[in-house]
């Protein structure tokens, strides 16, 4: 066998900007293409916007009309939060949607005896929603203070490329329960969607129409439309008439009851459910979810920057984005969305799938959210897409985000046993500990202090949060004296400050010349 010459070996140099993107963060497609891509991001964001209210509103005592109104409100506020984040926050192309991290403390409020014993379902729904609103308003101060005081910027200086590998990877991998386990609940719809999407977006991505790779760029819209029609044909033909209730819920296209329950025109407004109520016990429990969503958002920001072909966000910009996330959570509390704020991970993955990381596309998507949330019937039509279809897409999108996290290993020395130990232990515990907590219906912490139970159960049910605690602790305490180069610190050194790299000004400067009034540090 011939000896391989060193010059024949392919050597891939580390790149702080991901290459091969058609449009990066500050370049824009044509208006027609941008509107189509923005609508595609809007459709993808509907999965979480519908799933969270569908899960929580019935437990709160609400009916289909209440659920439809919460979905509209969540979409409306998501559009506002996204515009604020892309204009004044990190300026990354990220959609600020609802967060599953808030489910544990919200369930604790729902189970509170003072609300659970109310006989009238609608009154119980209103009282519970007002309690959730009050807790969100109070707990949002954590993100606002950490962000605008630049305390989170100080904390982020302890983050190295090595420490971010398990955190960003588990932002995607940690959502595995919303992937194929949900596809399997209606495999005759979910599996064709998964196979068709992979085939069009990857194997046929070189198909061009007028020099535009239409299948790579718009395969999500095409696949959802085709499979949605296929699912409607199955429903109309009576394929699910005699099946189990759970199968009908996951497969039928007429089970959401959103269209019939929505008004033609409805504009959400602050305090629409009434004046929020405040409880120290509930607020303290909600603060744990705020911390979790802050950490998950930090990992998602790192992934979004990579998939927008931008440089890693400086600590100042990252902290600024967290401050605006806190404002977003405050808006969630004022409007009553029933959950808090975080980056939509699936939409971050779509940046990579389409190879379009343009900020303008996400802002157009935010416009669609606001517009269709006010036109209730039209928005409800799109929101009635079976969740199994979204779950199939999540299998791809969450995987892309996880791969972005693993790509940070290129900046580190993976021939170092120290680094392998840190990444391996962080990844394993980041998956194993939340899996242990998920086996308990209300979490394993059962003390008399309800807020403490919510704290423990919420924090340790989040894979990225556990991974961050483990990875950052080990990375900053284990043989750290001579490990700076192995950890990848030289690669990120110039991105620690706003003026450390000239590209930071190009990607992250505030619009309307606002940097004159808010000079970056």
UniProtKB/TrEMBL annotation:
It is a multi-pass membrane protein. One of its GO terms (molecular function) is transmembrane transporter activity. Coiled coil: none annotated. GO terms for cellular component: membrane. The chain crosses the membrane at residues 39-58, 94-110, 131-152, 158-176, 183-203, 218-240, 361-383, 389-408, 420-438, 458-478. Keywords: Membrane, Transmembrane, Transmembrane helix. Pfam families: Xan_ur_permease (PF00860). The keyword Transmembrane helix applies. The keyword Oxidoreductase does not apply. It is found in: Membrane. PANTHER family: XANTHINE-URACIL / VITAMIN C PERMEASE FAMILY MEMBER. Belongs to the nucleobase:cation symporter-2 (NCS2) (TC 2.A.40) family. This is Nucleobase-ascorbate transporter 2.
